[in-house]
Specification:
This protein has helices at 11-22, 26-36, 40-71, 85-92, 94-105, 147-181, 184-202, 206-210, 219-226, 230-236, 243-260, 265-270, 275-284, 302-311, 319-332, 342-354, 359-373. Helices cover 63% and strands 0% of the residues. The termini are far apart.
């Protein structure tokens, strides 16, 4: 009779395996050796296998701990749409489950009575002598046996402790996720924190929009627009979508708000919270040649370009994207000067920092130039 070795990926199975591993004791260990009648060589081979499994499990535990540190506080994670959380965790501990299966199968009874027709085969971890039943053990304990037996017992103890700790961590994550999902305030806090972290990536996705003639439909954005409140939306969609889907929603949300204010896609991403400044920049670009913008050899004056970038009030890490937007808009408005290369702009920006000229001073200088012609 074969044992069932495929474990259902659910919380019940997780708890069953934990209970089985917690049942490991010296009595069951010695009884298992007696039933299998293992030679010293076979015991040493089993010890070697257990140690190999232990190394794989240790690597898996480290990865699981790292995963657990961000999983609960990330609003969206990979594979949300493919797997439930319990399934995801089972996929993270494949080596641990495989190790448990291989070791426990070696300690299951070899002979079994035929099962009644229609009855399901027993699971391996519910039949192993190591984890099932009460066994008297030995009067003098494992220490009275030869060294190979003592070594195997110590290694198996470590082995089962690792299994317990790994599966217990998985179970705590499942419980914690459930508690967070029931707390709308906590879900909203995690949603806002995750969105803030993704926003830097989102605002660099303007190139993605260049090839899109019509904004794609976002299921997540539709759900947000139909939600009773932001709290209810955050609670209902916690760990239901991937980071890519959340980023797409953020892009479309920013762009849609920008469109409603009369902005282009690029302007909406550069000035998500200051649409008025976006419109001012748009109005100033056609006036650029009147600001004394001509430098050497028909190129733009580098100092004026830097002052303009600071006046635009975007984050420093977005200035390259802003400059690309400016050059394109300047060309479309019929500007007659040749824009500087981005490396030249960066050099001038560096020089001004070394001269201790602040961003505010440069923005004020551009404002004064602008006031002189308006």
């Amino acid at each position: 009779m074969k044992y069932k070795t495929i474990v259902d990926k659910n919380e019940s199975s997780l708890l069953q395996i934990i209970r089985a591993a917690e049942s490991f004791n010296a009595g069951g260990f010695l009884e298992s050796l007696r039933k299998r009648n293992l030679s010293t060589y076979e015991i040493e081979q089993l010890t070697f296998e257990v140690r190999e499994h232990q190394q794989k499990m240790n690597r898996e535990v480290r990865a699981l701990v790292k995963f657990s540190e961000t999983f609960l506080t990330s609003y969206a994670t990979e594979n949300n749409r493919c797997f439930e959380t319990t399934e995801q965790l089972f996929n993270h501990i494949r080596s641990t489950l495989s190790a448990a299966r291989k070791v426990l199968r070696k300690t299951c009874p070899r002979r079994m009575k035929p099962l009644p027709e229609g009855k399901e085969r027993p699971l391996f971890y519910l039949r192993s002598t190591l984890t099932v039943g009460t066994h008297a053990g030995d009067l003098f304990g494992v220490e009275s046996f030869e060294l190979s037996v003592q070594t195997l017992y110590r290694d198996m103890t470590t082995f089962f402790v690792t299994i317990i700790n790994t599966l217990a961590l998985c179970h705590r994550m499942i419980i914690s996720e459930r508690e967070i999902r029931d707390d709308a305030d906590r879900c909203l806090e995690i949603y806002n924190d995750t969105c803030a972290k993704l926003m830097d990536e989102v605002r660099h996705l303007s190139r993605w929009l260049e090839d899109v003639k019509q904004l794609p439909d976002s299921q997540l954005l539709n759900r947000k627009q139909r939600a009773r409140s932001e709290k209810s939306f955050a609670r209902e969609n916690y760990h239901q979508y991937t980071p890519a889907e959340l980023k797409e929603m953020l892009v479309l949300e920013l762009v849609t708000k920008g469109h409603n204010a009369g902005l282009t896609d690029e302007e909406a991403l550069l000035w998500p919270n200051d649409h008025e400044q976006a419109m001012r920049v748009r109005r100033v670009i056609p006036l650029f040649d009147q600001l004394g913008a001509e430098g050497l050899k028909g190129k733009m004056d580098s100092g004026l370009v830097i002052e303009f970038l600071k006046w635009c009030k975007v984050e420093s890490k977005l200035e390259k994207q802003l400059y690309q937007y400016f050059c394109q808009a300047y060309k479309e408005q019929g500007g007659r000067l040749q824009p500087l290369g981005w490396s030249s702009v960066c050099q001038v920006r560096k020089d001004r920092r070394e001269q201790h000229i602040s961003d505010e001073e440069q923005a004020e200088s551009f404002e004064r130039r602008l006031a002189a012609i308006v």
